[in-house]
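Exercise 7.
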Amino acid sequence: MKTIERKILFVFCGFIIAIILVELITNNFLLEKYYIKENKEIFVDIGNQISSFYQTQNSRDFEDYIISVDREEGISVYVINRVGKILYVSKKRPNEEISKSLREIALQNRDMKGYTFGILKDSTSNTSNYKITLTKRLEDGNYLILRKSIKGIQDSVAIANKFYIMVGAFIILIGGGIAIYLSKRITKPIVEMSNVAESIAKLDFSNQVDYHAPDEVGHLATSINSMSSQLSQNINQLRADIEHRKQLFRNITHELKTPITVIKGYAEGLQHSVVDNIDDIREYCNVIVDECDQMNALVYEILSYSELEWSKTNVDKTSFSVVTLMNGLVERYENIMKTREIEFVSQIGTSHNIYTDYQLLERLLNNYLINAMNHVDDYKKIVLTVKEENEFVVCEVFNSGKSIPDEDKNKIWQVFCTGNNSSHSGSSSHGLGLSIVKTIADILQLMVGVRNEENGVTFYVLIPVNR
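Solution. The predicted structure, written as tokens, is:
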């Protein structure tokens, strides 16, 4: 950040020095030319006025007039005859005379209306003094000469140059200190943002930029703070997801370990002829098949959960009657319930249309019904209910059994979590069914939940009515 401070200081000093140089160059090369140009118009105008006065006034008045011109305008006035003799002068000086070159220029001006204007060196002076000179022929044949020294403007240029250098040095000294102070004020939030950015690069999101000004730097600071917070949330979520994946892998390994062990034990029993009775052999084979079915079902549930969680399932929302969906579920599960000697009751109290993905909602309710069959108690009763409540179609699946402890109500939606309810023991559930329900609900933006009843548990899903 020191580089930025130096750059600001160098730019400021360079700007001041550039201004001073421009002033010096302008004074040395242009000011004198501008001064001469402006004086030319003044000389011509005064020359015309003096010519008019010369023709109309007497000599005494004319002398007083040119003396006032010299005093007020700083212009020396001469009138000479054809041979170069001075007839009138605005200010008499000892040994006053007109230089030979000026006399020649005056005498060469034979145009009654014209004038000669230029810069001539004063040869009568010991110093190199240049003067602005205008010569004009008067009507009586005499010549008017106006002269003004430019030494004053040259001295003024030198004084102005010294003044600019002194002022420039003062501005650089004072302004440099101000520039350093302001650069520190400007670079302080930038340094702070740089430090915060380095912390973010190291995955440390504890630091925030403490700068809240309504300018571009303030907006940048706010953006960095927002980015830091968002990255912190995303990385924490990623870490939680990685930990979740690790736990999922451990649970899958544990779930597969048991059936593999059972299958291996029964297969080794057959291999070593532990049993020779055909019925026992058939029983061993049946156990192996059952365990393979369990493993197959587990693998299917894992693939289904992974597919849903990673949003690989295409959502195809359509409008359909809830009665159509419920009749299909009832028809599918009636025989299964009878085989398991479960009392299955359906109560469809609304015929509204709903707008959602038919297959995903059907899959959600399938998992509810399978979960109910896995956890039904000895009373063996399952009730499928559909009703309308507050602009929602509510689908409920009740199964008789023990209630779910309050501390487990949030856990049951997690992968491989079956709660502490003893009624879950010995069930064929793998702990993925309700996780799939929750994932589908998130995809379809539906609300799911569970509540304990007097003699069982009810799982429900709320679906907006499609008017």
